[in-house]
């Protein structure tokens, strides 16, 4: 079941969201046709629930919003980028285990 805490960003809303000075942001760059993206989607929802209030979790569909993906240099998906204070703090490419993501998140919180 999809979390209602995950933001779905557009090219227009991307900068405003990731430049949040108060809360780090995890952005999942994905596409409907991407099997690994679909495989990690439930984990992204879990992270949004588990870190609610401490981390903003967002998704960008690269087929619909290529500008944000280009701006971040996304070359393959899934790509997960952690932003802190508007700057890229961590970039994780591929369908990784949840433990790797939580370790990266906990490091910047």
Cα distance spanning the termini? 26 Å
Cα-atom Rg, whole angstroms?
Answer: 12 Å
List low-pLDDT spans. none
Give a count of the beta strands, DSSP E runs of length 2 or more.
Answer: 5
Compressed to H and E, one letter per element, the order equals EHEHEHEEH
**Tally of contiguous helical segments:** 4
Give the count of structural domains: 1
How confident is the prediction overall: mean pLDDT?
A: 94
Task: Itemize the secondary structure elements and their pairings.
Blueprint: E1 6-8, H1 11-18, E2 25-30, H2 35-50, E3 56-61, H3 66-71, E4 79-84, E5 87-93, H4 98-108
Would you kindly provide a written description of the structure presented here, covering whatever features stand out?
By secondary structure, the protein is α/β, with parallel strands linked by helices. The protein has a single domain (6-108), classed as 3-Layer(aba) Sandwich (Glutaredoxin), CATH 3.40.30.10. 38% of the residues lie in helices and 26% in strands. The longest helix has 16 residues, at 35-50. The mean pLDDT is 94.
